[in-house]
Amino acid sequence: MENTPASNFLQSIIDEDLSSGRVKEVVTRFPPEPNGYLHIGHAKSISVNFGLAEANGGRCNLRFDDTNPEKESQEFIESIQEDVRWLGYRWSGEVKFASSYFGQLYDWAIFLVEQGKAYVCDLSADEARDYRGTLTEPGRNSPYRERTAEENLDLLARMKAGEFDEGAKVLRAKIDMAAPNMNMRDPILYRIRKVTHHQTGNEWVIYPTYDYAHGQEDAIEGVTHSICTLEFEDHRPLYNWFIEQLPIDNHPRQYEFGRLNTSYTITSKRKLKRLVDEGMVQGWDDPRMPTIAGMRRRGYTPRSLRHFCEMIGTTRGDGVVEVAMLEHAIRDDLNDNAPRAMCVLNPLKLVLSNYPEDKVEQLQAPAHPSREELGQRTLPFTRELYIDAEDFREEANKKYKRLVLGKRVRLRGAYVIEADDVLRGANGEILEVHARIIPGTLGENPADGVKPKGVIHWVSATEGRRATVRLYDRLFNDAEPDKGDRDLMQLLNPDSLHTVTDAWIEPGLAQAEPEQNFQFEREGYFVADRFDHTEGAPVFNRTIGLRDTWNAGAGQ
Ligand code: ATP
Ligand code: MG
After folding, report:
1. Which of 79, 424, 517, 551 has its CA at 20 to 30 Å from residue 252's CA atom?
2. Mean pLDDT in residue range 234-240
3. Ligand 1 pocket test, candidate residues 30, 42, 67, 231, most atoms within 8 A of CB
4. How confident is the model at residue 229 (pLDDT cuts 50, 70, 90)?
5. Could you tell me the sign of the dihedral formed by the alpha carbons of 285, 289, 290, 296, in that order?
6. Is the CB of 271 under 6 A from ligand 1?
7. How many Å lie between the centroid of ligand 2 and the Cα of residue 260?
8. What is the pLDDT of residues 524-538, one digit of tens each?
């Protein structure tokens, strides 16, 4: 089988399993806990699980590991499905829920009790911690460990019936309190939680732990390759132990790969939730968030995210990937695919004194420099235009390749002009630049041989449209905001959002569809906001600048 870029060592394992006949069809799953929005790390896991199933003609389930009802919600369940679909993946059959296996998991718990492999324990959380020992010291057996199967069955049934308070009892596996692997020291299978569950309502007051549920869920679904991140490596012996004790035929095998972390980024739902809850961003889908929904709103494309996940490969080591690589992936995609347009972010009026007041020329320009099939766009040219204030100086040295009094520039896709004069306001500020077009310079050099110094972008002041443009920058100034437990507030970039309310756009841009990407020439890549953009009140978000100037210390 051909090696896909997303695969590496996992694909080699699958190749062997298929050729040895151990596995007939590859079945994977992506098993998020619905306790937050998905982030860039999850995009990696999605691309690995769905990608491997796709590449090997198998299938991939989407399963919500909903064993912690307090932290979960329907909003998260919906956003996760939307993100997976948006990335371009389709799960096999219906969406799955760990909670739909609660009955089976409970029956298996009874089975373990009957076999003397599980017991009800009354130690408090503090006592249990004390009995558990440490990495260097063995734990001690719980005084409740030798309860008879009969007594345990009775207590478990009464736990389920709601007779005991939260924390009063747990069901534990009976394995080995001296095991070097702490996960094997009589781990908890069930705890009492008198909370309503978003799927099962008030049916249950005991809930299985992730550790007890996870492997069995995979087995029930016929998962062949349980792919997860490295922190679950030490849990593998426990997952295997459960499957071996239980009357289960299908034995999924677990393989771990390194988590994706990117610099300047937080990839912990808990910390991302804090940013949302404390109002440091405007929601889970704020375009500065490393969530899939945030990146989507920022203008990232599914293609760029999938490509990024392939580029970084899948290894057995944890590491930090430069966020510049992610930015490279989106720039690369948009450079190839985004239509070009003009937007003036910092408008300065330019009046062309030799151009008739009521004349409008409908100039044509290609939507993309190398992709003819993207067609043409219309740029109305008029006597009054806006240029960027940065593109004009009264005087400047030779390095300044823009408009200077007495000098020439070309207006992108239009005429060469020469600046004559400025009009000042009461405080001496420049209100207007007065200039002339050089006739006959549409697509031609000036006949007198005096060439323009550069090319600047522009928008008609009378035919163009006003727009809101949000200029985003990195959310964190710190390269490793996830490291340790530092105060996130201290690491935030105070200038991560700058909103321009009087930008001017070429008129065709007002008709952009929400989520349509563009390159604003000389400015960067922008997207029509998914929710706020309308033809009457256009709103664009900056996805990324044309060049990365972050490392140069210049900001963007
Ligand atoms: P978080 O710590 O952000 O809450 P999690 O691991 O608890 O993440 P889950 O919802 O349990 O999130 O994750 C679903 C799947 O996504 C798991 O298989 C997990 O291993 C994987 N995953 C989570 N974060 C990353 C990451 N940074 N890189 C790769 N895979 C990840
Ligand atoms: Mg988790």
Report:
1. 79
2. 97
3. 42
4. very high
5. positive
6. no
7. 14
8. 999 999 999 999 999
Closest C-alpha residue for ligand 1 atom 18: 228
Catalytic residue among 145, 253, 259, 303: 259
Q: Where in the chain is the domain with CATH 2.40.240.10?
A: 341-463
Q: Find the ligand nearest to 44 CA.
A: 1
The dihedrals phi and psi of 405, each to the nearest 5 degrees, come to -55, 130
Q: Tell how far the Cα of 151 is from the centroid of ligand 2, in angstroms.
A: 34
Instruction: Using CB atoms within 10 Å of the CB of residue 326, give its burial: 0 to 12 exposed, 13 to 18 middle, 19+ buried.
Output: buried
How many CA atoms within 13 Å lie on the side-chain side of 556?
23
User: Using the 8-state DSSP alphabet, how is residue 9 labeled?
Assistant: H
Better-scored residue on pLDDT, 5 or 330: 330
359 is catalytic: no
pLDDT at 548: 61
Superfamily of domain 9-262 in CATH is HUPs (3.40.50.620)
Check whether domain 269-337+469-552 has CATH 3.10.450.50, yes or no: no
CA distance 186 to 178: 10
Looking at the predicted structure, is the pLDDT value of residue 422 above 70?
yes
Q: Where are the beta strands (DSSP E) in 163-269?
A: 170-173, 188-192, 206-208, 225-229, 253-257, 260-262
- Please report which confidence band the pLDDT of residue 394 belongs to, taking 50, 70 and 90 as the band edges: very high
pLDDT in tens, 113-125: 999 999 999 999 9
Residue ranges, comma separated, of all CATH 3.40.50.620 domains in the chain are 9-262
User: Burial, 279: exposed, middle or buried (Cβ in 10 Å; 0-12, 13-18, 19+)?
Assistant: exposed
Structure tokens at 470: 């949000």
Q: Average per-residue pLDDT in the chain? A: 95
Give how far the C-alpha of residue 442 lies from the chain's centroid of Cα atoms, to the nearest Å.
Answer: 44
Superfamily of structural domain 341-463: Ribosomal Protein L25; Chain P (2.40.240.10)
Q: Is 287 helix (H, G, I), strand (E, B) or coil?
A: coil
